[in-house]
Amino acid sequence: IMFLRLLSDIQWRAAHPKWRRMSGSQRSSSTTAEPHPVALPAQAQVVICGGGVTGTSVAYHLSKMGWKDIVLLEQGRLAAGTTRFCAGIVSTARPVSVELKMAHYSNKLYQQLEQETGVQTGYVKTGSISLAQTQDRLISLKRIASSLNVMGIPCEIINPKKVLQLHPLINIHDLVGAMYVPEDALVSSANVSLALATAASRNGVQIHERTCVSHVTIQKGRVTGVETDRGRIQCEYFVNCAGQWAYELGHSGEEPVHIPLHACEHFYLLTHPLKDPLSSSLPTVVDPDGRIYIRNWQGGILSGGFEKNPKPLFTEGRNQLEIQNLQEDWDHFAPLLSALLRRMPGLESLQIMQLVNCPESFTPDMRCIMGESPTARGYFVLAGMNSAGISYGGGAGKYLAEWIVNGYPSENVWPLDLKRFGTLQSSRTFLRHRVMEVMPLMYDLKVPRWDFQTGRQLRTSPLYDRLDAQGARWMEKHGFERVKYFVPPGSDLLDLDHSKTFYKPDWFDIVGAEVKCCKEAVCVIDMSSFTKFEISSTGDQALESLQYLFSNDLDVPVGHVVHTGMLNEKGGYENDCSIARLSKRSFFMISPTDQQVHCWAWLKNRLPDDSNLVLEDVTWKYTALNLIGPRAVDVLSELSYAPMTAEHFPSLFCKEMSVGYANGIRVMSITHTGEPGFVLYIPIEYALHVYNEVMNMGQKYGIRNAGYYALRSLRIEKFFAFWGQDLDAFTTPMECGREFQVKLDKGVEFLGQEVLLEQKQNGVYKRFTMFILEDHDTDTDLWPWWGEPIFRNGRYVGKTTSSAYSYTLERHVCLGFVHHFDEKTGEELVVTTDFINQGEYEIDIAGQRFQAKAKLYPFSSLFTQRRRKDEVELSGYQRE
Amino acid sequence: MCVCPGPRRIAIPVRSSRLPLLSDAMPAPAHLFPLIRSCEISRIGSTACYCHHRHLCCLSSHFAHSHFRYAPQKKFAALYRPKEHFNHFIHTRDYASTPQRFYLTPPQVNSILKANEYSFKVPEFDGKNVSSVLGFDSNQLPANAPIEDRRSAATCLQTRGMLLGVFDGHAGCACAQAVSERLFYYIAVSLLPHETLLEIENAVESGRALLPILQWHKHPNDYFSKEASKLYFNSLRTYWQELIDLNSGETTDVREALINAFKRLDNDISLEAQVGDPNSFLNYLVLRVAFSGATACVAHVDGIDLHIANTGDSRAMLGVQEEDGSWSAVNLSYDHNAQNEREVERVKMEHPKSEERSLVKQDRLLGLLMPFRAFGDVKFKWSIELQKRVIESGPDQLNDNEYTKFIPPNYYTPPYLTAEPEVIHHKLRPQDKFLVLATDGLWETMHRQDVARIVGEYLTGVHHQQPIAVGGYKVTLGQMHGLLTERRARISSVFEDQNAATHLIRHAVGNNEFGTVDHERLSKMLSLPEELARMYRDDITIIVVQFNSHVIGAYQDEEL
């Protein structure tokens, strides 16, 4: 507790007189010390709950954007929660691109904040050193370094000797290298928060401390107001920045808003100053292999970490007072202390000041949560910072403010969007178990294709056990178990820990065999996880609405399947789906698994309020079997006694038919891979029967099970883009070669039409391109993953979005976007076909560049001999 | 059983050099007796071999740790090949110098240590346990293959009280096995009032369901011989019939009951072997039981009355918590061996003065047997004539067995050995927290004071250490690190065990010179190959009984 006074209260006192003076002069209502607090306003446009760094950052940015009618409520005092305890490290070394951008922005914001507000933020540009004890760790650092460099953030990979020069206390004997980011900084997080609040307050934001939000009122799916212990405030927008209490707050109202996050205890150590006090500009050290970070602190050090065995807390929901009473737990901290003394043996004689227990909130996928609730319009969330609140706070607040003011942020934030989660991730048990995995993961080595191991087997196909018994290896998407590949009997794959690699994985040949079978015979992939909606109406309402919401022409004959984007006003992909016209007035829509919440909200918010127009989520009703391969047609015609040849069953066609004894199976001639075949949508009670029939009948055609890795390889070599990975809300069909899926002249106005028309005339500023790695040795070189920088004639032009090994081409294929930056100004120019074709390309994998051949169209010649005439699913869509 | 750290090392080369001989000389009767595991037979066989080459038995290696020891002979040096000896020590050193090759991981160590652990909690009624026993933990760690120790635990159903016992077999496990199966029935029957005995006898007579006498608390590895159950039952029935006929009308005294039961069972074992059985398997079994031996240390707990009946050199020890919270040990049994002067006196008293010199040699009875009291071991009880007659009329396996044929030297006035126990009665007090019954495998490696402390701290959960708070103290990172490392070492050794007996074994095998468990040492000890394990340690069997101080306190108040 001593520390609380030292780190926070002293600083608070230092800042507070100033703060009170300012707030007084600004007629604002910081009421902490005043006997009679200023009454709450009866209404406001925006109410923000939470006075930590995220809440104040949102207030700051909203007010900067010109919104004035804003009230910020804090149950205790400003910056009194996790923010007060935060270690204050601003680190830009983040693997996810949007997180990196947020951290970069935060850093720039904090740097000038003291000047802007007059509040001392303690900002010091110390730089940071991330240490690598293993070659694999160094590879992961090199990957981050590559992406920092192309962002223009200085960053270098350095050898251990250089580490010693930068930080004399570090024991370098077990290091293989390190990454140095010279512009990373330290701040006093509480003061940053106060500075943001000060600036916001100057811009008219009203701040009320010691005001507790009891719940948010929602009527007809819209936020109408906030109930507090000091009365009610009517508002249009509510922003939940309640940090680790965000989950509770979300559940407090009648209509729950699910914000899946969970707190874990987090410990760090403070020491007295060294004999020769450490310089305040000494770089921060991150030793992920030792699971610790170390920064200088008042001449001594501050060191914490992310232990292997975290202690989740507040699972049952508690009040915030308990946060003050959390105990130090030295036994728990012991491994981290060992790591610290191993890293800096010279600190043995340093005297301990305090072990701080400061809970942090974590999310199920280690990424923060922002955005609007799918069920309550005007209910925004910014929380779950996974202990990087200070690094992200500035940038995240900016994006959320943009989101509220403009309808969407200036960056693609889908990886952080609240709507990537649904109710299924908000079980307390799930969260408790998952965050125990997530917290250590902060410093775990993350190799391509890692999966979460906790909170699994929640949603499964009816065939799960059957497939599992046949050697299926599973991954999870939106709670749904999906097969990666099938381990043939007798073959011995490495166990989980040993199969972690940045190089050629152990399943290489297994997936190769599955791909081969898809090409030459027939494979079955269970694709039941896809989101499936049915839209129907009594009259033409369904068609009319869909024609407006989708860019392709849906007024097709009954039985046709249309690939189409669901675009936003800017022509960007909100979703990418296949829609089958079941009848004149009903449609069956298939979209990616993780679209279940987002797409539902998007449609609900945009479909007319008409009781004769019904939108239904039928995801759970159907099991989907994808029969891929040239012999799929034979299997299916034998099982149905119906001719399945092209004349009778053309490509992109949908028909209900019988398969085996089961009737009413929805068969579609699409495979999501560009290979010939069918997807069977089977009412779940028939799933086992149809699967058995298909496998029995398929035997003579060489049928086998396959998984998503095979599918992925097939779709990437065919240049199929996939939403959520390659496509996002900032990508238009024109930019990814899908003009043919846009019917500008369909005679009906549709969302995004104007932008697409404009792009058609004036060209696009980025172009989805396929790269075939030329001098890359699959056996010995690092494999591409995604996010690798693309260089054209030696200049950075974009990043890859996905990659796979093509067993047909026997080469690695990367997909990614190419931009055209003006050589002098950096301004974005139109990307033409010539620009793409006339460049020499290289892909940077962890600092090593590989030559690549760029292509705008798939290698059709390579594949055509196996395809049926006129049945080419031209660059269809793909999702995983 | 034997405390002989010196011979242990000498035994290594001797034993290994003897092994080829053994296999040559062995009749290999394993296929005839599927129930007898081959190792056991090889043990009998090996005994035979040694005896066959009696003049070579000078090495007596095999018996260095068993209860037998044949008088050292002159030809020791002749057979003993120094080169092998040397090689062997080189080899042993290899274990030490390249330990990683033989190291077991902590989970492997745990799976070995926990393989035989068993816990029993006395069930509670209405949320209250009215028994003075909270429950017990037991475990055993073999050194012999198969293990020669046995353990038993049971609740008396027709009288109050709980019976717990450890049995250390020698010259095979047959006798220990039989005693572990039978002794508690003899005790229970001895304790039964006349009416209950009558009721039981009538039930048997009329073929009705029998009143259950004992509820066993057995680990799945603790087996009962199905084949012999009929035979055993008949002997037991004869015993209770005699008790009925003898009806003294007096209430049964526990001490007497225990002594009678011990003596009666040993007598029955002896009789069964003399009478034989038409079934050839059973016939061989009863002979093996009689010709092997076993010590027994049995506790009977009824309320605050604790009786320990001990025969041999297993030991019962009471763990007492002093007022200051520290732990002390109180012995509740006397070892019956050469270290016990009273016991030596007793033996000498029972035999003519002329035998005084030959009675106890090398701390062994007749120079052969370590414990001075035991079940079975008819070689030390029967007359020479009887032994010869039984062996001659016995099955070939017995006849071919040189050990059984061998008559102890200076065998003039049998019996030299008795199974009569020494009984100690103790009234439990609230400070008596637990009782440890263990075979000598434990006691030869650990002092009872350490046993009391380790179990005491384990049971009272001292391992739930107070959290450390720095507070206003001046502590450096290095000091804190040292403190935490030490705490972790202590905690990890405790937290690994849910069973006090396992915890004790972990210490017994793995303790280093500082009295803390050294994983390296533990792992090394447990990875010793079977034939070496016996050189470094004996079978260990432990039962830790935990007492219910509240109930005991209440009893005391009543008595006051």
From TrEMBL, chain A:
InterPro entries (UniProt xref): FAD-dep_OxRdtase, FAD/NAD-bd_sf, FAO_M, GcvT/YgfZ/DmdA, GcvT/YgfZ_C, GcvT_C, GCVT_N, Rhodanese-like_dom
Record-linked Gene3D superfamilies: Aminomethyltransferase beta-barrel domains, D-Amino Acid Oxidase, subunit A, domain 2, FAD/NAD(P)-binding domain, Probable tRNA modification gtpase trme, domain 1
Keyword terms of this UniProt record: Mitochondrion, Transit peptide
GO CC list: mitochondrial matrix
UniProt superkingdom: Eukaryota
Pfam families: DAO, FAO_M, GCV_T, GCV_T_C
Domain (Rhodanese) ranges: 46-89
First-listed, main subcellular location of the protein, grouped into a coarse class: mitochondrion
Location within or outside the cell: Mitochondrion matrix
Subunit organization: Heterodimer of a catalytic (PDP1) and a regulatory (PDPR) subunit.
Role noted for this protein: Decreases the sensitivity of PDP1 to magnesium ions, and this inhibition is reversed by the polyamine spermine.
Family according to the record: Belongs to the GcvT family.
Protein name: Pyruvate dehydrogenase phosphatase regulatory subunit, mitochondrial
Protein source organism: Catharus ustulatus
Taxonomic path: Eukaryota, Metazoa, Chordata, Craniata, Vertebrata
Automatic annotation (TrEMBL), chain B:
Reaction(s) this enzyme catalyzes, per UniProt: O-phospho-L-seryl-[pyruvate dehydrogenase E1 alpha subunit] + H2O = L-seryl-[pyruvate dehydrogenase E1 alpha subunit] + phosphate
Domain of life: Eukaryota
Localization, UniProt: Mitochondrion
EC number annotated for this UniProt entry: 3.1.3.43
Keywords: Acetylation, Calcium, Hydrolase, Magnesium, Metal-binding, Mitochondrion, Protein phosphatase, Transit peptide
PROSITE patterns with a match to the protein in the record: PPM_1, PPM_2
Cofactor annotation: Mn(2+); Mg(2+)
MF terms in GO: [pyruvate dehydrogenase (acetyl-transferring)]-phosphatase activity; metal ion binding
Record-level GO cellular component terms: mitochondrion
Pfam families to which the protein is assigned, alphabetical: PP2C (PF00481)
Gene3D superfamilies per UniProt: PPM-type phosphatase domain
Positions of the PPM-type phosphatase domain: 133-547
Protein purpose: Mitochondrial enzyme that catalyzes the dephosphorylation and concomitant reactivation of the alpha subunit of the E1 component of the pyruvate dehydrogenase complex (PDC), thereby stimulating the conversion of pyruvate into acetyl-CoA.
Subunit details: Heterodimer of a catalytic (PDP1) and a regulatory (PDPR) subunit.
Family to which this protein belongs: Belongs to the PP2C family.
Listed name of the protein: [Pyruvate dehydrogenase [acetyl-transferring]]-phosphatase 1, mitochondrial
Originating species: Catharus ustulatus
Lineage: Eukaryota, Metazoa, Chordata, Craniata, Vertebrata
Gene it is expressed from: PDP1
